[in-house]
Design brief:
28% of the residues lie in helices and 16% in strands. By secondary structure, it is an alpha/beta fold. The strands form seven sheets. Strands 5, 7, 11, 19, 21, 23 and 24 form a seven-stranded mixed beta sheet that branches. Strands 15-14-13-12-16-17-18 form a seven-stranded mixed beta sheet, sandwiched between helices. The chain is globular, with a radius of gyration of 29 Å. It binds zinc ion.
Length: 1017
């Protein structure tokens, strides 16, 4: 346990022998669940009648399928013996607890009902099967009726829109005059600081004040699954209009955004959609003012494509003073002769080519025909002065490790197959037309192939040659490119030679078997080949590169933790690797790595991955690579890498309104000096960054605050463009409005990205402590300044930060920051991942989606009456949710586990895995996908997995089996149950209690007479 940040110095939670009271609750609950488990659940699988009615797509397949008879349910007929959660001790004889409402519990429930979570009276305590009884969010009214393709009324006066009353009961707050609804749970009654001190020193650790004796109902604390499921259902049938509502949907759910002049949250999320006028006011919230940008984010079906606008040789109109690009928030004056910059208020002359008169209200008459004046996100073609070199279609270079380890572990063959499949598709790919020859990369792109072990081998793939010609470059001290033509070819024209080469490489090198790769010389050699044009390298690596210049050695000896020595493992000072990385960025080159450690070995990802991190690339890491299990995943990820939207030679700049300034950037890129543009060798759809702002003055409450990011890049198809993303926020005196319109996902993203940047100066333990302190500061700030009057003993959470503390706990428990042992490779990998992740991927990473599939409703996993896939609701990440005989899908966006309880029904197994697979032990532990079977359950689960696959970041979805008591992946399952005590940190309940106690301390420090200042609203 590492929670020693008690400001008073007492060791509040430092005792590792301390028994988690939740374990008792959990045990109790576990026992009570068994009675559920013995009878078929209400939503169970064995319903009668045709389960196929709603499933047109699967009807044909489903014929002839036998519905299991009623008495052959998936659950064992008799209650099985109590199964203990692995981490608990034996005692189960407590007579109190969850499920038996004591007076205490009833009081709690009443208290919840009185204050109302989300404005509703809390329902009576319910069994968790009652999943449709969740509280409702007041229906946000922004609806599809605004989605008629035309901007609505407010568009006429955009610059002031946000300061005007909402036109309809639009936002979740429309019916509320004051603070957002609060959720809370009572904890320890208000006590003075002295009392706290006494309690700390006197209390045995087994009885932390508030969570003892089951007073905190784990079902009642804010639930991340609920916070996602309810909006997800809502946004199935509603679009998100970007100007009418100022609170974006949760990042983890799919939604269709309608761009009304403010960019879609998929591209940009502000932490605060209403910004206080002064830095002092902001400080009362303890929240960061930041913007999370994902400029090339993937769109979803139903969204309008980003328009590409060409202003010819004059280029897009820009403010002469601050260089802001034309956007919907610039206003026109003097009959259309001047445009006033929304950032710096400078009145610019309108170029004659761009002139249009204004109507009596001051709006340009051609406004609605001008996407740059109506849309938050547009792209401009740019003329020559924006070019670094003549833009050309992207060059892809595959740099393939052919050393012994790669060859003998199936990695080399898998990588070559993956490239082939990515370039040309394969026969078994269902989405491809059979015999399709269309390449998946944009027309004009070229492909080159280079292999390396202790030497570097180039290949002449020139069309007309049946077989590629290998040219060995032996001089690894001074690498050069040994051929001038034929290295890069059109993948369509050279399909024969590329296919034959990639097919032969594995056998060619199975006879050579050189053990040590010379990676840095290989990188320098291929960099030479791309120096003139820029491009993207996709490189495989199977073992620590220990040969030639830049050779690395085993640095991670797994020694001291939380020391400077450990900290150095997370970065690199190696001059050779740093230099190569810098040269790559300069040349407009970036690199993605596919790294496998077949024997779990050390790869020095800190050093090797540095070139990828600073050039805007990514690492696909297979820490315990196993062929064939990981081949499907690798193949999908190579395909994703080359098919996702990719740009190169990119520069990025973020501008903001007068009164604010950029104070820092967090992400994977290069910035030479503070204030300089960010440089990316490459950038793709999955990459995000965080931008921090500070005040350099006071904001004018009569104006809005504006932000614009401009990404200058060359598209994969070879066009030089600027993608502009415009975001607007209202400005208000004081910070109450800021608390109302706080975006939890953006706050968590900014804090997480900032935490990864601290790794060069602080130990992991310090970072974890700082994260805890930040959580306390934010929630205490709210309690002190904005929550109104509540009994001091209650934890009051801001409505829009209800799940904030759980997300931060997820961060504290993540591989990047968790206490305890974790190989440095995995830590560095995850830190860089967090730094570059978009909000959706991060949300899933910090809290997984868990679905039970043994008791699906028969309609789950099929289209509903409106054609949308009906998803089951997700479960809390806690072992207390696990049922006897249950089967669960656990997906955190990085891996997807299929966890199967030891007592799982043989019928379920056969429905999922096929005839004959009626026992867990008969399953193939290395299977990565589910077979296509003509059973209802098989179709449901495969549809659900397909849905999950479309809603995630860059990592492919394949399944990994975690059979209870059989597979190592069970540890990963336990690690991901973030609401439980694990990863050397507290359970969610205890974490909240801990945070609450510190909030009380802070509040009592600052406000002796509680309640005075709290009435600021
Ligand atoms: Zn300006």
């Amino acid at each position: 346990m590492d929670f020693s940040l008690n400001p008073l110095g007492a060791s509040a939670m430092g005792n590792t022998a301390w028994e988690d009271p939740n374990d008792r609750v959990r045990r109790q609950k576990k026992a009570s669940q068994l009675s559920h488990a013995a009878t078929p659940g209400p939503g169970g699988y064995q319903q009668q009648g045709s389960p196929y009615g709603s499933a047109a797509a699967f009807q044909a397949n489903a014929q002839g399928y036998n519905v299991p008879s009623q008495d052959q349910g998936y659950f064992p007929p008799v209650a099985a013996p109590v199964v203990q959660p692995a981490s608990t001790s034996a005692s189960t004889s407590q007579s109190y607890g969850y499920g038996q409402e004591s007076g205490n519990m009833a009081g709690l429930t009443a208290s919840f009902g009185e204050m109302g979570m989300d404005g509703h009276a809390a329902p009576a305590p319910r069994r968790k099967k009652d999943r449709h009884a969740y509280h409702q969010i007041e229906a946000p009214a922004g609806s599809s009726q605004t989605f008629n393709g035309m901007p609505q009324g407010p568009m006429g006066t955009p610059s002031q829109f946000l300061n005007q009353p909402l036109p309809s009961p639009a936002g979740p707050y429309a019916n509320q005059q004051v603070t957002p609804a609060m959720s809370q749970f009572p904890a320890q009654a208000g006590t003075s600081m002295q009392q706290h001190q006494q309690q700390r020193s006197q209390q045995p650790m087994g009885a932390p004040a508030s969570s003892a004796q089951g007073r905190v109902d784990p079902e009642q604390i804010p639930s991340i699954p609920r916070s996602r499921d309810i909006p997800a259902d809502f946004y199935l049938d509603h679009v998100y209009p970007t100007m009418e509502q100022h609170l974006p949907p949760p990042a983890a759910i799919p939604f269709v955004a309608f761009d009304q002049g403010n960019a879609s949250p998929k591209y940009a999320r502000l932490t605060l959609n209403s910004i206080p006028t002064t830095s002092d006011a902001l400080a009362t919230t303890a929240l960061p003012l930041g913007l999370v940008l994902q400029p090339l984010a993937r769109q979803q079906e139903g969204e309008q494509p980003i328009p590409v606008l060409d202003f010819g040789d004059i280029g897009p109109p820009r403010c002469r003073r601050c260089r802001t690009y034309i956007n919907p928030f610039m206003t026109f004056q003097n009959g259309g002769n001047k445009f006033v910059c929304n950032m710096c208020t400078f009145p610019n002359d309108v170029p004659s080519e761009y002139f249009a008169p204004t109507d009596p209200s001051g709006v340009r008459v051609d406004r609605l025909q001008r996407p740059e004046l109506t849309l938050g996100t547009v792209e401009f073609m740019v003329p020559k002065e924006y070019w670094a070199k003549p833009p050309m279609p992207l060059r892809w270079l595959f740099l393939i490790d052919v050393t012994q380890e790669a060859s003998s572990r199936g990695f080399l063959e898998g990588f070559c197959d993956g490239i082939l499949n990515a370039l040309y598709g394969s026969g078994d790919d269902q989405s491809e037309e059979p015999g399709s020859t269309t390449s998946r990369i944009p027309t004009g792109c070229k492909v080159g192939i280079v292999t390396y072990d202790q030497e570097v081998h180039f290949y002449n793939l020139a069309s007309g040659m049946e077989h590629a010609q290998m040219i060995v470059m032996p001089d690894i001290e001074d690498p050069f490119v040994p051929l001038s033509e034929g290295l890069f070819v059109d993948p369509e024209k050279a399909k024969t030679s590329i296919t034959s080469l990639l097919t032969q490489i594995p056998s060619m090198f199975s006879r050579v078997k050189k053990p040590e790769p010379a990676l840095l010389p290989a990188l320098n050699a291929v960099l030479g080949a791309l120096a003139e044009t820029g491009g993207k390298i996709v490189c495989s690596l199977s073992t620590l590169p220990t040969w030639g210049p830049g050779r690395l050695f085993m640095r991670d000896k797994n020694e001291a933790r939380d020391t400077d020595a450990e900290r150095r493992l997370f970065t690199t000072e190696h001059p050779g690797w740093r230099k190569t990385g810098a040269k790559m960025v300069e040349a407009g080159v970036g690199i993605d790595f596919f790294m496998a450690a077949p024997s779990g070995g050390y790869l020095d990802i800190a050093t090797v991955g540095h070139v990828s991190a600073i050039s805007g690339g990514e690492i696909f890491y297979y820490p315990n690579f196993h062929s064939p299990r990981d081949l499907l995943r690798m193949s999908k990820e190579i395909k994703h890498t080359i098919t996702r939207e990719t740009g190169y030679q990119a520069l990025m700049k973020v501008r903001c309104s007068n009164g604010l300034q950029v104070s820092g950037y967090h992400g994977n890129f290069t910035q030479h000096t503070f204030g300089a543009d960010l440089e990316y060798g490459v950038i793709d759809a999955d990459k995000a960054l965080g931008v921090m702002f500070s005040y350099d003055g006071k904001l004018d409450p009569k104006l809005d605050a504006h932000f614009q990011s401009a990404l200058l890049y060359t598209t994969a198809s070879g066009e030089r463009r600027v993608r502009c993303t415009n975001v607007v926020a209202s400005v208000s005196e004081g910070a109450l409005e800021a608390m109302k319109f706080v975006d939890q996902d953006a706050v968590v993203s900014i804090i997480a990205k900032e935490a990864t940047a601290r790794i060069t100066e602080k130990t992991l333990k310090d970072i974890r402590n700082a994260l805890t302190e930040k959580t306390v500061d934010v929630l205490a700030g709210y309690r002190k300044n904005f929550s109104g009057s509540h009994p001091p003993g209650q934890l009051v959470l801001p409505e829009n930060l209800k799940e904030f503390s759980m997300y931060i706990l997820g961060l504290v428990k993540s591989r990047a920051f968790r206490g305890g042992r974790e190989p440095s490779d995995r830590r560095v990998h995850d830190m860089r991942l967090i730094r570059a992740m978009g909000p959706m991927e991060l949300s899933l990473y910090l809290y997984p989606r868990i679905y039970s599939i043994h008791n699906l409703d028969e309609r789950d996993g099929f289209a509903n009456e409106n054609g949308h896939l009906r998803m089951p609701h997700a479960l809390r990440a806690s072992f207390s949710q696990i049922e006897e005989g249950g089967v669960y899908v656990v997906d955190n966006g990085q891996i997807c586990l299929l966890w199967l309880h030891a007592q799982v029904s043989p019928n379920l197994l056969q429905d999922l895995f096929g005839e004959g697979f009626d026992d867990l032990k008969k399953l193939d532990p290395f299977s990565a996908s589910l077979p296509v079977l003509e059973t209802h359950l098989s179709a449901q689960v495969r549809n659900i997995l397909q849905y999950l696959e479309t809603t995630r970041g860059s990592k492919a979805l394949t399944i990994q089996l975690a059979r209870q008591g059989l597979d190592g992946a069970e540890f990963e399952f336990a690690r991901l149950l973030y609401e439980d005590r694990n990863n050397e940190a507290q359970s969610y309940v205890d974490w909240l209690v801990h945070v609450h106690r510190h909030i009380q301390l802070e509040v009592s420090y600052d406000i002796p007479q509680f309640g005075g200042k709290a009435m600021a609203n």
